[in-house]
Amino acid sequence: MKTRDKIVYAALELFNEHGERSITTNHIAEHIEISPGNLYYHFRNKQEIVRDIFALYSAELLERFTPIQGQQESLTLLRHYLDSIFTLMWKYRFFYANLPEILSRDEQLHLEYMAVQEKLQANLVDIMRAFVDLKLLVISEQEMKPMVTSLHIIASSWLAYQSAMSPKAKITEQVVHQGMLHMIAVVKPIATTQGVEELTLLEDGVKALNSRTK
C-alpha cells in the first residue's frame, strides 16, 4: 500500500476510535511509524486527509446506492441496501457522528458533500420506485421524495443524535443497528403485506445481530 493510502486509512481508524477532533497529524504519523515530515509531503494538513476520506466515502456511498438493474429477488435487494447502510455508518462513523462541525470548518468539503447528497437523493428515489414496482411499497410519486428525505435524515443524523443524547456513550455496532431498526419502522407503514413480511425478516435479522454483538 502506498504511503498516502496508509495515511488515509490510519486516519480513518484513529478518527473512528478516538474522534476526529482529538487526533492530530502527529498521532497519524506515529500510528503508521513515519515522520511528520513524510506525512506533510503527502498532505499539508489534517483537513486534506479528511477530504480524502470523504472521497472514499462518497465513491462507496454512490456505488452501494446505485439502482441495481435486472431481475433481483426483492428480499435480496432489501438486504443489500440495509447492509450498505450499516457498512457505511460503521466504517465512517466519525463522519456521521460529527457531520455539522466537520462541514462547517471546510467550505469546499461542504460543497462536495451537498453535490454527492443530491446525486444520492435521486438514486434513492429511483430505488424506492423499484420497490413500488416489486409491490413491496405503496407510495405516490409525490410522497417519494419526502420519504427519502426522512430516511436520509435518520441515516445521516442518527449517530450525532445518539452522541447528543448521551455525550459519554461510545458508538458501537448496536447503536448503528438501532438506527437501522428505526428506518425499518419508518418504512413499514407504507409497505404492502409482502413488504411487511420481508421487512420483518430483515428486522429480526438485525435484532439477532444486535444481541450477538452485545
UniProtKB/TrEMBL annotation:
UniProt KW DNA-binding keyword: yes
Which InterPro entries does this one have?
Homeodomain-like_sf (IPR009057), HTH-type_Tx_Regulator (IPR050624), HTH_TetR (IPR001647), TetR (IPR025722)
Q: Which UniProt keywords apply?
A: DNA-binding
> Gene3D superfamilies of this UniProt entry?
Tetracycline Repressor, domain 2
**In terms of domain of life, where is this protein from?**
Bacteria
Q: Which PROSITE patterns match?
A: HTH_TETR_2 (PS50977)
Q: What SUPFAM superfamilies does the annotation carry? A: Homeodomain-like (SSF46689)
Q: Which residues bind DNA?
A: 24-43
Pfam families per record: TetR (PF13972), TetR_N (PF00440)
Signal sequence range: none
Q: List residues of the HTH tetR-type domain.
A: 1-61
Q: What name is this protein filed under?
A: TetR/AcrR family transcriptional regulator
